[in-house]
Amino acid sequence: MTTKKTKPGQRRKPGKRPGMVRETPAPYGKQTLKSVSLFSGGGGIDIGVENAGFHSLAGVEFDHNAADTLRFNAERKGTDTKIIEADIQTVDPLALADPGIDLLHGGPPCQAFSLIGKRGSLCDERGMLLFEMIRFARALRPRALLLEQAKGLLSAPNEKGEPGGVFKRFTRQLEEIGYCVKWTVLCAADYGVPQLRERVFIVATHGRNGFSFPPPTHTESPEDTPLLPLKSYVGIGSVIGDLPKPAPKGTTPTVPNHVDVTPDRDRERIHPVAEGGFLAGTANASPDLKRNLTKKDTTKYRRLHRLEPSLTLRCGEIFFHPIEDRYLTPREYIRIHGYPDSHILCGFRDSCFPSYCVGRN
After folding, report:
1. Cα-Cα-Cα-Cα dihedral of 249, 319, 17, 195, to 10°?
2. Which listed residue, 185, 190, 236, 283, has the most CB atoms within 10 A of its CB?
3. Residue 204 phi/psi, 5° resolution?
4. Rounded to the nearest 10 degrees, how much is the dihedral formed by the CA atoms of 253, 257, 258, 263?
5. DSSP β-bridge partners for residue 34
6. DSSP string spanning 13-37?
7. DSSP string for residues in 253-281
8. With DSSP H G I counted as helix, E B as strand and the rest as coil, what are the percentages for the chain, rounded to 5?
9. pLDDT at 359 (0 to 100)
């Protein structure tokens, strides 16, 4: 199953925009389905799973700051989710839950498969972590498995250099232990998230099933769908526009994680860039500001546009506020991702954003 690649949305006239639904997860006690989370990151997939009615028995995460975030938010919600901060290869699945859980889910590291970067695939030790999902599935025998990964997984070569070999091996191993595998590429913007983020989603159930991926609810061009009208893409202005001015670096913010850490030089360099533009393509910017940038550097010193979805938020890449001369704050980043305001990030101080949330789940 394939989907059409989505291009950045066109600018539209100002007006009321559809907003993000930032819900508080259902209280523990009303949840009956049991899940286990692997490669939990900042807890993004976990939030969606909990909102769907699952009780998360455990989460496994190697990054210390991410694990701190998971523990803090589990305690704040009063849940008994066990957070395991460890190398997943050392974790015994049966120490987390008994066989027969309802859902096993996770987003293994994508760096080995991403189309951006060295793309070491299985020659990169992080690439082999994908198959930890298989090991846990064998032991826990979940009724269903959910995995999110970068699109590059579909074409990543195996040890023999065969394009797509990793994906074929992964799905074959799931089928060998009795799972029916379905997959597709989904764009977050097609479902009301203000971000043009495409990812592979794999859903596998123990035995045959009638599952199908949900149809899009939003589109770049609603006028092209007259018979089955869809909503317009959500612009980032509708999810960050109500935030107050961020707190300066080193001070306590009134909104958690809403802190401005922009260096003075970067404020100077972004100043001439128009909303939705980038520094290398700004005609009136001086050579001193552009320095070594080329016109190919379309995501460096990039301002987002209030009426458009964000480009994909990635680790190590900083986007600027649409109209203010500053970076987006961590709170703005995770609002664009769809995290609820009740979710607090821990374990970082003055960094622009925590990579365990932005570039992962």
Report:
1. -120
2. 236
3. -130, 135
4. 100
5. 55
6. -----PPP--PPPPPTTS--EEEEE
7. -SSTT-EE---HHHHHHHTTPPTT-BGGG
8. 30, 20, 55
9. 53
CA distance 117 to 277: 24
Instruction: Write down the domain spans for the chain.
Output: 33-219
Please, which residues have CB within 8 angstroms of residue 16's CB and are 6 or more apart in sequence? none
**Residues, the chain, total?**
361
Model pLDDT for residues 325-354, shown as the tens digit of each residue: 999 999 999 999 999 999 999 976 545 555
Strand 179-187, strand 198-206: pairing: antiparallel
Report the chain's mean pLDDT, rounded to a whole number: 87
What's the gap between Cα 60 and its chain centre? 17
Q: Coil, helix or strand for 55?
A: strand
Amino acid identity for residue 250 in this structure: G
Q: Whole-angstrom Cα distance, residue 148 to residue 254?
A: 33
d(CA 136, CA 31): 23
Contact between 87 and 62 (Cβ < 8 Å):
yes
Q: How far apart are CA 195 and CA 171, in angstroms?
A: 28
Beta-bridge partners for 84: 60
Amino acid letter at 257? N
CB within 8 Å of 71: residues ≥ 6 apart:
83, 346
135-172: per-residue pLDDT in tens? Answer: 999 999 999 999 999 898 888 888 888 888 899 999 99
- 187 in active site: no
Q: Which of 110, 187, 352, 357 is catalytic?
A: 110
Q: Closest by alpha carbon to 274, among 36, 11, 9, 5?
A: 11
Place of tokens 């910017």: 285
The single-letter DSSP state of residue 116 is S
Residues of the chain with pLDDT under 70: 1-31, 112-115, 117-124, 127, 348-361
Helix (H) or strand (E) holding 206: strand 198-206
Percent of the chain with pLDDT over 70: 84
